[in-house]
Fold this sequence. Notes:
Elements: E1 6-10, E2 23-24, E3 35-36, H1 50-63, E4 69-74, H2 94-106, E5 110-115, H3 118-126, E6 133-136, H4 139-142, E7 145-160, H5 170-179, E8 183-187, H6 193-199, E9 204-208, H7 211-219, E10 225-229, H8 230-240, E11 245-246, E12 252-261, H9 268-281, H10 283-290, E13 296-297
Parallel strand pairs: 4-5, 8-9, 8-10
Antiparallel strand pairs: 1-5, 2-3, 6-12, 7-10, 7-11, 7-12, 7-13
Amino acid sequence: MTLAPHVSHVSPSRGRWARALPRGLVLAGTLLLTACALPPSLVSPPQPPEQLAAAAPAARAVLAPMGVLRVGVYAGSPLSLLEHPGDPSRNAGLAHDLGRVMAGWLDVPFELVRFDRLPDLMLAMGQGEVDFTVTWTSETYGRDVNYSLPLLDLEQGYLAGPDTDLRAAADLNALAARQGGVKLGMLNGSGAQAPLARRHPQIEIVSLGSYTEASARLAARQINAFAASKSVLYPMAERLGDGARVLDGRWGLETVAIAIPKGRQAGMSYLSRFVLSVRREGYLQAAVKRADLRGAIEPAIR
């Protein structure tokens, strides 16, 4: 099936910044990493490191075979795209920001390809219609894409709805033991069903179609909590208000990486060096800060 995504074209990024990048602290208080304060738009990333510049012509033919880097995004996720319609220069998200850097270093135009949902994006990537995105690694999607070295790990936790008495992850099982009928939501296709069922044998696991649906179910008290990446849960809690909170503790970690279509193994060496460079030089940490990505920690596998 061929999807009809929304495409927006952005000119390639070239040139150096006029000033050095300051160093700082980043990653939601859970980790101290080298960081840099990038200009809000990330329109003009500096020239690539010498090794990557030398490898760019060969990598460009593999990683951007259409002569443009088609970056797949879905709105509303700090891993992908956070839009500011009144001021596009403030648009953020790891796929958006790192895609700009990659396009600049490959010296090709940067093109956003928008989707409503991650599954649609990954289907398009499997069909070769998208060149680059950032997402958590998944065995399901791994059949159609190749993942880079890890960018970072994200804590997976629980969001309890408004006016909740729950404080910690362990309170969910205690509540189920006392009264039964406890419902825990999860995102369909996230791969969370099995680990959550093991941790919460007395709780009904409810599969939901979107984060919007999860927020609505929490607000209506139709589920007691929602399990997902803390990077998503903290903004959801703020939007819900009325005492909604992210519970202490976590039920897992998810690894975040760059994904490219299968069949482009010749570009994996360049992609690995790209990941190491953006981690070392601070572009990753700057993208994390711009997207207000919380729950991020240094990857266990480096």
